[in-house]
Design a protein that fits this description.
This protein is α/β, with parallel strands linked by helices. The protein has two domains: 31 residues; 339 residues, Ureohydrolase domain (Arginase, Chain A, 3-Layer(aba) Sandwich), CATH 3.40.800. The strands form two sheets. An eight-stranded parallel beta sheet has the order 3-1-4-9-8-5-6-7, with helices on both faces. Strand 6, helix 7 and strand 7 form a beta-alpha-beta unit. Helix 3 packs across helix 13, helix 5 runs parallel beside helix 6 and helix 10 runs parallel beside helix 13. The longest helix has 17 residues. The structure holds manganese (II) ion. This is Agmatinase, mitochondrial.
Amino acid sequence: MFSCFRNLRVTRSVISSSYGGTKADCFPLRTPQPSALCRTPHRTCSGSRFNVPPSAEFVARVSGIPTMAKLPYQETADGLDAAFIGVPIDTGTSNRPGARFGPRQIRVESAMLRAYNSGTRAAPYESLMVADIGDINVNLYDLKDTCKRIREAYRQILATGCIPLTMGGDHTIAYPILQAVAEKHGPVGLVHVDAHADTSDVILGERIGHGTPFRRCVEEGLLDCKRVVQIGLRGPGYSPDSYSWSREQGFRVVQAEECWFKSLTPLMAEVRAQMGSGPVYLSFDIDALDPGFAPGTGTPEIAGLTPIQGVEIIRGCRGLNLVGCDLVEVSPPYDTTGIHLLKYFFSYSLIIIHTFIFSSTGTTALTGANLLFEMLCVLPKIKYY
Ligand SMILES: [Mn+2]
């Protein structure tokens, strides 16, 4: 655990050594007074046996290093019941890139998250020890090597008994994560929320990419195919029945058209019956939502799910034996009003200004952060009031 004083000393020593100064002249006016820093309650000093994020009633939302949900950061999953992890890649994308920035922007926008779920009365921080354990050290030049690194890292995370809540990153990451998950739990059920089936065999000659992860998972026996549901699939296809391969494997496919104008709460009752008591992985591609709500993503398709339906799906997973969850494909550079693209044609300097301003709106990342919080709230052993 860090103390305020220890952090202050580090800051002061770095400043004084880099300027060649001494303790006596290390910028007393610029260095925050200890009392000012220590008025900030520490993230773990709540008196609870669990990590509890600081409340914005007492700590400004915009202060501090932006970890997921303002939770403490730690380097490993040791001692945790659940952990947020970033996998910052977009080298598996087939269209717009940018998902490598997803984990960062989700963390920034997660400053709005609070400790309780007002809708369901879940109290995750009274139930589980949760922290942000940073990002996987991916290789942005080699997707296969990245998959290997992800698999190895998740093996270690899962070995501690911790449930991973992953911030993508493009959807390629579900494949190596599920390799590690199935190694521990055996073939798992899958709740896959997405605009796309992600079951292509080969794209541009490559077997690894964000359009192929669930084909690879089936080939390797990582999924209990009778306990797989894909929700929200839509968009133009390469053939009249784009989802026949999924159905042939035994997946339940719920196309977006079946979701239009409906609450998905009844569907989720059926999904819970399908999943039973066995281990289940939840993989949520933000492009399942309509791009009007979540424009910041790589392969948008119109006429998608609403954020309300997304929340209904996740809340409908309460009671499942969830062993891992991910939220993928948030691409902050496209999480914009689009205005900066118009400005591009007028002035190079303006594009810098407007890219900065409008890329900072972060609505898709904000939605992603909230969906991840909803996932945390339906993990096994969560206390509800
Ligand atoms: Mn996907």
